[in-house]
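ingest -> fold -> write
write: protein_1
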Amino acid sequence: MKDEYSYPIGIKGQPWGEQEKAAWLSTMTVKRSYQEEVVTKITALSERFDISQYGALSYDTERFPLLCIKTKQWDDTKPTLLISGGVHGYETSGVHGALQFVDTKAEHYSQWFNIVVAPCVSPWGYEVINRWNPTATDPNRSFYPNSPAEESAGLMALVASLDAPVFAHIDLHETTDSDETEFRPALAARDGIAYIEGYIPDGFYTVGDTEKPAPEFQKAIIDSVRTVTHIAPPDENNQIIGSDVVQEGVINYPTKKLGLCAGLTDADYVSTTEVYPDSEKVTDQECNDAQVAAIVGALEYLLAQR
């Protein structure tokens, strides 16, 4: 395990100021197109679903509209499911898994649920393939009042505008090798703290809410996903990314306390999915399929409780 690192920006042990954040931002380059890869897929669904814009990022309002997809025949007597993807824009299957679910499964489940999908919460992060936004802020630690992240504030405003409370929320994420090679070292440098090398689990896992863990709900997600890809094993301490494994492939976080996307509602059932796209055992398509399977597993469990 390494506790020494040399990040190219900033002075070791000193938190970043605006100069260091600007230096970091200057290293970001566009690697793919939100408009071409995401917006075109969303607009192609417009005849089958209600598409609306709930905001736009001030970095470039024309280039980065914030779009959501809703099932038709919205009925306040149905429970409402929220699906969010791309809160960390670099986590690709979160975005495209959400879109695949809408295209292939959402109409079927709209018989029983209102479904609202925000497939790419952080389009700037999607384009530059980064965890943060341009201010070096992590949107997935920024879901609280007066959020410093436009991306998080936009999604919170969307949820507040819904006609019905959110009953269940699935937040689609990935854990990647770059979490250790880039993003956690950058976080340590930004905050002026020591970087301690972590462990990247090989496989799928979920993160439940410590305050309402819903273990059977999480199990249903895991069991659905295992038909598509492998489940992450615990490390030698029976942990995944430093948290105790409470059942196969499941850990819990205090989502509201940490400002996580999964904590933005008061939903009874919440889960954050974590796909591992860098595994030699999976393809990009299988990662998207795993995200779809997670949502389907969640919905089938909820249907069985009716």
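write: protein_2
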Amino acid sequence: MIVVVSYEGEDHSDAVCACLQRAGRELLRIDLADFPVRNRIALRWRDGAAPQYLLEIAGREVDLAAARVVWWRRVRGFDVDPAILRGQHRAFASSETGQAVHGMLDALGCAWMNPRLADEAAHHKPLQWTLAQQVGLQVPATLVTTRAEEAQRFVAEQGLGQVVFKAFLASIEEWRETRLVTAEDLGRLDLLRLAPVIFQRYIPGVDLRITIVGRRLFTTEIDARHTSYPVDMRMVVGEGRAAAAQLPADIEAKLLALQDRLGLRYGAVDMRRTDDGQYLFLEVNPAGQWLFAERLSGLPITQAVADHLCELDGPAAGP
């Protein structure tokens, strides 16, 4: 059984689930927002018997102990019963639900894409940059700081107009594009005391979105250099020239080594290729999107994700 931890309407998991269903795979989709109210659980440990991880979903009871692979893909928070009104009581109910549900999932002795705790850690960019350097990837000069004087010094060293600043996580509610630091921004550096900010040397070049599925790499190059916003290709995906591309073998090997160090089976990597042929690592998103890259390049990424899950699941059950 393949367990997909995501939610209806998440278009990437929707597309892969459709592939898995066509392949005749036993599939269970779990939305964490359905806990604790809509999805009920009963976890049992008894002498001489294997643990049971029973879920009741839409009137169907399933023992998660039968799972052979779990795909951890963009999840939502727990939805606490609205009858619980007080904030501290809601927080307690959510915490208790997390202890039970996450503990149940972590106890499953099956393959994961990606392991939940590895996925969580791999979202942290300081860890990514450190490990990327250790495996031999080149990282642009980068500063994370809450100190105005450090940011001022970094911009002076790199040159005004040669530094970008960006957020650690771009959520739907608080989405921010990557921006060049301007003279006006330098007058607001005292605001750094409120939260850390990433400053990074701006690297002109062609964007590379590298989708890694198991040991396979699918590279889409997007040339946004002559678009209306070359600083952040996400803003102008439809304007730039895009095509499938091939990475040098040594870069592929280093990216796979990084995935191994992070404990990931899936990752969406962003890099820049300069005009003189340098490859610079920007980040890896363990839950990154690929449908736009697939549409632009024609690379069969959705099918590759489904195929990898099937490989981890093992032979399909007979009729």
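write: annotation protein_2
The chain has three domains: 2-113, 121-138+203-298, 142-201.
The chain is about 30% helix and 25% strand.
pipeline exit 0
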